[in-house]
């Protein structure tokens, strides 16, 4: 069984963060281990509070997993402070996991800011060059590059900037555009052309945790041995099907979760 470690924040509502990661990793058939970086109080309506954990307990969680269980891939999500970013980067350099999927969790689906500005800068400068692939949504890519994205035609400019700053590969998620067809695009230094993954947009409020779910799925498929372009195809298919399955789900009054275990049903 392939082992996937998620380093991210906890979501009390269960739709995003560590909870979504563990559900995704388990649903795809890998073994999920976790290191929690922050505890959030949130639900489908938004984030009530965020409390980062101490550097000591974050480090001990990561070392406890990697020293004993190990990891075939690591997914990194919410890192709330520059010190946490530096710690995680140092541990990635020390342990050298085969694959690192970096989801720069800066803003929640509800619009609440989860990562302070200096931490976002540290993610770009310190952690992004260590990642196998980066998975930003459009607001996150705009914040990381300073480039406004109006259409998919702007993606190449964003990739060039992120690559200049150290990114080896970027799966840019197109969910924030208003097209009826949603396009996620993979850029990589190992590919001569970008790969486009298209799906019909689903009219549903249940999109909480989609970024966490996609990045965890991508980490799983990389751990399972798929090349990056194929892993991205499988991961984008997985999140699309999870959204479809939860289209009419009624949990909470805001942005509900996707259905991670749709295949079991």
Automatic annotation (TrEMBL):
<dbReference type="GO" id="GO:0005829">
    <property type="term" value="C:cytosol"/>
</dbReference>
<dbReference type="InterPro" id="IPR013749">
    <property type="entry name" value="PM/HMP-P_kinase-1"/>
</dbReference>
<keyword id="KW-0418">Kinase</keyword>
<dbReference type="InterPro" id="IPR004399">
    <property type="entry name" value="HMP/HMP-P_kinase_dom"/>
</dbReference>
<protein>
    <recommendedName>
        <fullName>hydroxymethylpyrimidine kinase</fullName>
        <ecNumber>2.7.1.49</ecNumber>
    </recommendedName>
</protein>
<feature type="domain" description="Pyridoxamine kinase/Phosphomethylpyrimidine kinase">
    <location>
        <begin position="11"/>
        <end position="259"/>
    </location>
</feature>
<dbReference type="InterPro" id="IPR029056">
    <property type="entry name" value="Ribokinase-like"/>
</dbReference>
<comment type="pathway">
    <text>Cofactor biosynthesis; thiamine diphosphate biosynthesis.</text>
</comment>
<keyword id="KW-0067">ATP-binding</keyword>
<keyword id="KW-0547">Nucleotide-binding</keyword>
<dbReference type="GO" id="GO:0008902">
    <property type="term" value="F:hydroxymethylpyrimidine kinase activity"/>
</dbReference>
<keyword id="KW-0808">Transferase</keyword>
<dbReference type="GO" id="GO:0009228">
    <property type="term" value="P:thiamine biosynthetic process"/>
</dbReference>
<dbReference type="GO" id="GO:0008972">
    <property type="term" value="F:phosphomethylpyrimidine kinase activity"/>
</dbReference>
<dbReference type="GO" id="GO:0005524">
    <property type="term" value="F:ATP binding"/>
</dbReference>
<dbReference type="Pfam" id="PF08543">
    <property type="entry name" value="Phos_pyr_kin"/>
</dbReference>
């Amino acid at each position: 069984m392939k082992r996937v470690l998620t380093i991210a924040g906890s979501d009390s509502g269960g739709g995003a963060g560590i909870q979504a990661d563990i559900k995704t990793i388990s649903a795809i058939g890998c073994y999920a281990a976790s290191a929690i970086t922050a505890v959030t109080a949130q639900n489908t309506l938004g984030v009530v509070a965020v409390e980062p954990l101490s550097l000591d307990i974050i480090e001990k969680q990561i070392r406890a997993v990697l020293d004993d269980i190990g990891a075939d891939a690591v997914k990194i999500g919410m890192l709330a402070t520059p010190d946490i970013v530096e710690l995680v980067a140092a541990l990635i350099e020390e342990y050298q996991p085969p694959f690192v999927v970096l989801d720069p969790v800066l803003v929640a689906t509800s619009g609440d800011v989860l990562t302070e500005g200096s931490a976002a800068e540290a993610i770009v400068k310190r952690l992004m060059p260590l990642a196998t692939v980066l998975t930003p949504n459009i607001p996150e890519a705009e914040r990381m590059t300073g480039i406004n994205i109006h259409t998919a035609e702007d993606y190449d400019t964003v990739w060039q900037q992120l690559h200049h700053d150290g990114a080896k590969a970027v799966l840019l998620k197109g969910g924030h555009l208003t097209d009826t067809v949603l396009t996620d695009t993979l850029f990589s230094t190992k590919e001569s052309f970008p790969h486009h993954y298209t799906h019909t947009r689903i009219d549903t409020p249940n999109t909480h945790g989609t970024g966490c779910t996609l990045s965890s799925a991508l980490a799983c498929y990389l751990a399972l041995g798929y090349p990056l372009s194929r892993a991205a195809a499988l991961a984008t298919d997985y999140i699309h099907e999870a959204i479809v399955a939860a289209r009419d789900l009624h949990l909470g009054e805001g942005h509900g979760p996707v259905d991670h275990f749709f295949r079991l049903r």
